[in-house]
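User: Second chain of the day. Same drill as before.
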Amino acid sequence: MDVATDKKYLINVFIIALTKAIYHRFELVGNLNMQITPWIIEIFNLETKLRVGIWEHELDFQPIHINISIHAIAPAFPQAIDDCINYQPICSWITNDWPRQKHTPLLETKLFELMRFVFDFDSRIESADISISKTKAIQEAQRVGVRMDMSRSEFENILLAQNEKISLVADQTA
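Assistant: Same format as last time:
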């Protein structure tokens, strides 16, 4: 090959590699060259019953609707459920385990608990958009609730700031 042919060959190789990187996000996983891609896992209108609210009647269980949109990275061509973000354990926790907790005055507190559970569930989760709605809070409304949409790093920064605040208060009272 002459220099001009070598140059064309290298340019073509570069263009192919760049195209793959742009259109097929991939990275090395362990010792295997496994193609990774972004996934969005959606859970719509999952119903559970929680004891949440500031009013006396909210000391009892009430229907709560959950919507979750999880952004995660996982293999582009999963071979088994472990390759995927398995939504079944998340749904099970929401409907079976979470209702066992004691009454909580604020829906915002429950939302933060759920956000923590989702991020703790799988380290491949990069962000989550979660809403929690009460179906019986306002008679004229079908639902009212709160929503939080944040990345893992934003969530971890909030936790870090909260822990620093708690440490500062503890130091001042000691």
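The chain is about 40% helix and 30% strand.

User: Great, on to the next one.
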